[in-house]
Amino acid sequence: MEYRRLGRSGLQLSVLSFGSWVTFHKQIDDSIADALMGISYDAGINFFDNAEGYAGGESEKMMGRVLKKKNWDRSSYVVSSKVFFGTRGKAAKPNQTGLSRKHMVEACHEALERLQLDYLDLYFCHRPDPAVPIEEVVWTMHNLIQQGKILYWGTSQWSGAEIMEAHRVAQQYCLIGPAMEQPQYNMFERYKMEMDYLPVFQNVGLGTTIWSPLAAGFLTGKYNDGIPEESRLAIAGFGWLKERWIQDEKIKKVKQLAVLAKQLNVSLAALAIAWTIKNPHVTTAILGATKAEQLRENLKAMTVLPLLTAQVMDEIENILQNKPYMDLA
Question: Among this protein's residues, is 191 annotated catalytic?
Answer without folding.
Answer: no
